[in-house]
Amino acid sequence: MTAETSTSIESAKAGGRSLTAIVLAAGKGTRMRSDLPKVLHAVAGRTMLGHVLAAAGEAGANRIAVVVELGQGTVASEIARAAPGASVHPQVERLGTAHAVLAARAALEAGSDDVVIAFGDTPLITGATLTRLRAPLADGAAVAVLAFTAENPTGYGRVLTQSGRVLAIREEKDASESERAVTLCNAGLMALSGTHALALLTRIGNDNAAGEYYLPDAVALAVADGLDVAVVPVDEAEAQGVNDRVQLSVAEATIQARLRRAAQIGGATLVAPETVFLSFDTVLGRDVLVEPHVVFGPGVTVGDHCVIHAFSHLEGATLAQGVSIGPYARLRPGAVLEAGSRIGNFVEMKNARLGEGAKANHLTYLGDAEIGPGANVGAGTITCNYDGVNKHRTTIGAGAFIGSNTALVAPVSVGAGAIVGAGSVITASIPDDALAIARSRQRIIEGVAGGMRAALQAIKASRSKKDD
């Protein structure tokens, strides 16, 4: 049984309607001035296309079809990662939005109760909005369009109504003067009854100023057939597409505001919310305190009662309850901090675990390491994990003490309760409860400091004369 079939069965058990989501993602994005396809630019740590695919899944899509530009392997790879099981349909010619939808004709012919058409460059659209968009179809509508009222409608297609009934959607370049005065604007996204979708889409023509096949023309065709057309309101900001870097930054600001609000409502304190940047999947527990200028990359989970001090950067990290990090801490993927552990200023962790109650308070790099409960790692300690070809692991036992300015040359282990003297270079494993000191013996030669100082001053004076 495929995942798609399983989802369909579960939907049927729940009395739900099947849904096919078609996502148009073939735009070149020339205004982005980028080698990266437009839909792969990220917002809050996730590609724009990833956001839309996630929204389609949240809306209950049991079949997702994505229309892409021919030859865009990187987009296809993102689809496979973000929505496993989604089908990919290349668009050979660019003849308008209705033409693009029909590139996924096979998905439409497979049949479903509802069809939702979305765009890969609208990252702010939510699953809840797509659910609202398809809702009128269950009440008998053949078409539902997403629309908003704009103070300045210039550039948008207008939703034309009469006595509360939708008549058509008119692109601005084809609109009359009176139609351009209409402020109800087409947001672009549309839902179609599976019963009528193909019949409407295949009848759309290209008799317009651009000579393109416009998806919104499905509305006039449905009205002419005596079918019901519904308008579903949406906030203008949510429906905005991203066409350039400026609009990308606007989308980022909007989604950050959403994420910050959700974190605060969920019980986290953000001291200066506007300076904290979250990813789409950031999880902050109750009574977490986040100081200013903190960045959360993807894959971060923070347990209850943690403190994230200022100017810290986290990605792919897991913090258990009561952990404290920073200021100026960097957690890279694979960093795990167990309950009550602490890292301080200018400490970096990567693919390493800090045991319960363990500490590394300053100026330390812990990579490919396992640090036991209650261990104390002194300032300037480095786990030398890379030999130029391969990575190696360092293990530090429970309750061990690592003196300042120690280099642990992996693979190496330090036993439980062991002590490493400051300034040591450890190349061999240390047993439990042992003391290891690995540094040159100190020598003291009395009475020579004055002579050395005088010689150095003479050299300095000589250089000053030459410079003159």
TrEMBL record:
<keyword id="KW-0677">Repeat</keyword>
<feature type="binding site">
    <location>
        <position position="379"/>
    </location>
    <ligand>
        <name>acetyl-CoA</name>
    </ligand>
</feature>
<keyword id="KW-0573">Peptidoglycan synthesis</keyword>
<keyword id="KW-0479">Metal-binding</keyword>
<feature type="binding site">
    <location>
        <position position="365"/>
    </location>
    <ligand>
        <name>UDP-N-acetyl-alpha-D-glucosamine</name>
    </ligand>
</feature>
<feature type="active site" description="Proton acceptor">
    <location>
        <position position="362"/>
    </location>
</feature>
<feature type="binding site">
    <location>
        <begin position="385"/>
        <end position="386"/>
    </location>
    <ligand>
        <name>acetyl-CoA</name>
    </ligand>
</feature>
<keyword id="KW-0808">Transferase</keyword>
<comment type="pathway">
    <text>Bacterial outer membrane biogenesis; LPS lipid A biosynthesis.</text>
</comment>
<feature type="binding site">
    <location>
        <position position="243"/>
    </location>
    <ligand>
        <name>UDP-N-acetyl-alpha-D-glucosamine</name>
    </ligand>
</feature>
<keyword id="KW-0961">Cell wall biogenesis/degradation</keyword>
<feature type="region of interest" description="N-acetyltransferase">
    <location>
        <begin position="267"/>
        <end position="468"/>
    </location>
</feature>
<feature type="binding site">
    <location>
        <position position="422"/>
    </location>
    <ligand>
        <name>acetyl-CoA</name>
    </ligand>
</feature>
<comment type="function">
    <text>Catalyzes the last two sequential reactions in the de novo biosynthetic pathway for UDP-N-acetylglucosamine (UDP-GlcNAc). The C-terminal domain catalyzes the transfer of acetyl group from acetyl coenzyme A to glucosamine-1-phosphate (GlcN-1-P) to produce N-acetylglucosamine-1-phosphate (GlcNAc-1-P), which is converted into UDP-GlcNAc by the transfer of uridine 5-monophosphate (from uridine 5-triphosphate), a reaction catalyzed by the N-terminal domain.</text>
</comment>
<comment type="pathway">
    <text>Nucleotide-sugar biosynthesis; UDP-N-acetyl-alpha-D-glucosamine biosynthesis; N-acetyl-alpha-D-glucosamine 1-phosphate from alpha-D-glucosamine 6-phosphate (route II): step 2/2.</text>
</comment>
<comment type="subunit">
    <text>Homotrimer.</text>
</comment>
<dbReference type="Pfam" id="PF00132">
    <property type="entry name" value="Hexapep"/>
</dbReference>
<feature type="binding site">
    <location>
        <position position="376"/>
    </location>
    <ligand>
        <name>UDP-N-acetyl-alpha-D-glucosamine</name>
    </ligand>
</feature>
<feature type="domain" description="MobA-like NTP transferase">
    <location>
        <begin position="21"/>
        <end position="160"/>
    </location>
</feature>
<keyword id="KW-0133">Cell shape</keyword>
<dbReference type="InterPro" id="IPR001451">
    <property type="entry name" value="Hexapep"/>
</dbReference>
<feature type="binding site">
    <location>
        <position position="332"/>
    </location>
    <ligand>
        <name>UDP-N-acetyl-alpha-D-glucosamine</name>
    </ligand>
</feature>
<comment type="similarity">
    <text>In the N-terminal section; belongs to the N-acetylglucosamine-1-phosphate uridyltransferase family.</text>
</comment>
<keyword id="KW-0460">Magnesium</keyword>
<keyword id="KW-0012">Acyltransferase</keyword>
<feature type="binding site">
    <location>
        <position position="38"/>
    </location>
    <ligand>
        <name>UDP-N-acetyl-alpha-D-glucosamine</name>
    </ligand>
</feature>
<feature type="region of interest" description="Linker">
    <location>
        <begin position="246"/>
        <end position="266"/>
    </location>
</feature>
<feature type="binding site">
    <location>
        <position position="350"/>
    </location>
    <ligand>
        <name>UDP-N-acetyl-alpha-D-glucosamine</name>
    </ligand>
</feature>
<keyword id="KW-0963">Cytoplasm</keyword>
<dbReference type="InterPro" id="IPR005882">
    <property type="entry name" value="Bifunctional_GlmU"/>
</dbReference>
<feature type="binding site">
    <location>
        <begin position="24"/>
        <end position="27"/>
    </location>
    <ligand>
        <name>UDP-N-acetyl-alpha-D-glucosamine</name>
    </ligand>
</feature>
<feature type="binding site">
    <location>
        <position position="91"/>
    </location>
    <ligand>
        <name>UDP-N-acetyl-alpha-D-glucosamine</name>
    </ligand>
</feature>
<dbReference type="InterPro" id="IPR050065">
    <property type="entry name" value="GlmU-like"/>
</dbReference>
<feature type="binding site">
    <location>
        <position position="186"/>
    </location>
    <ligand>
        <name>UDP-N-acetyl-alpha-D-glucosamine</name>
    </ligand>
</feature>
<feature type="binding site">
    <location>
        <position position="243"/>
    </location>
    <ligand>
        <name>Mg(2+)</name>
    </ligand>
</feature>
<dbReference type="InterPro" id="IPR029044">
    <property type="entry name" value="Nucleotide-diphossugar_trans"/>
</dbReference>
<comment type="similarity">
    <text>In the C-terminal section; belongs to the transferase hexapeptide repeat family.</text>
</comment>
<dbReference type="InterPro" id="IPR018357">
    <property type="entry name" value="Hexapep_transf_CS"/>
</dbReference>
<dbReference type="GO" id="GO:0003977">
    <property type="term" value="F:UDP-N-acetylglucosamine diphosphorylase activity"/>
</dbReference>
<feature type="binding site">
    <location>
        <position position="121"/>
    </location>
    <ligand>
        <name>Mg(2+)</name>
    </ligand>
</feature>
<dbReference type="InterPro" id="IPR038009">
    <property type="entry name" value="GlmU_C_LbH"/>
</dbReference>
<protein>
    <recommendedName>
        <fullName>Bifunctional protein GlmU</fullName>
        <ecNumber>2.7.7.23</ecNumber>
        <ecNumber>2.3.1.157</ecNumber>
    </recommendedName>
</protein>
